[in-house]
Amino acid sequence: MAPRPATALLLAAGRGERMRPLTDTCPKPLLQVRGKPLLQWHLEALARAGCGVAVVNTAWLGEQMQARFGDHFNPAPRAEAVAATAQGASTGVELRYSHEGRDFGGALETAGGIVRALPQLADVFWVAAGDVFAPDFVFDPAAVEAFAASSLLAHIWLVPNPAHNPGGDFALSSDGLALNLSKVAASPSTDAPRRYTFSTIALYRRAFFEAAWCGIPAGNPAGQKAPLAPLLRAAMDAGAVGASLFTGDWTDVGTPGRLAELNFK
Fold first, then answer.
1. Per-residue pLDDT reduced to its tens digit, 24-39
2. List of domains in the chain
3. CA of 78: how far to CAs of 47, 84, 110, 135, 253, in Å?
4. With 90 as the cut, is the pLDDT of residue 182 above it?
């Protein structure tokens, strides 16, 4: 059986307030990390995994994103790309855009942005924040297949808690489910599941953002703003969110200090 076509949504619409003044003239996903725009690290990983389409949502200085990457990303040297194309092979990643700033005057938050981009995505798709540095993460086609064959609505990757988020976001059960922290805290068990931070990297099923779980109309034509966390917590309470622990290099590049630290390692 042929692998399921992979698509991804890269979240790149945020203002980056904590990164000012760096983000006054440059969107955060285009800030340089070790010689490349931050967003490019995800694009290279998606290309290596054979992901055919990536949608980038934009708001603040969004025109710079499309000007930088265009409608196709190919990490291969030009000669290799030309040779592959001549042989009928597909190379690189087709890039599409969801311009929230242009269409609605600003970012729609995570769930609002996902629903807006949904018509451009497959039934199962990756999502990752464009301001997260995770060079070792593999957007594994086998993970897509396993998730698609499950009954889960989402599968998220958790990371050990960084210094700026010591309490974590969610917990991980022994049977591979993500747990709502409010439920964990209420548990009388002395061996409560360990808390971790949400990496922002996840697989989602289209149905999770449709009427039964999400009240935003298809395609979000009115530009409704909505956060993702309440949807995830509700699905976790229903046992519908899987989770894996990622222990590779991971940084939420949320401050100039963290950016500087990455570039001086």
1. 899 999 999 999 999 9
2. 7-264 (3.90.550.10)
3. 15, 10, 35, 23, 30
4. no
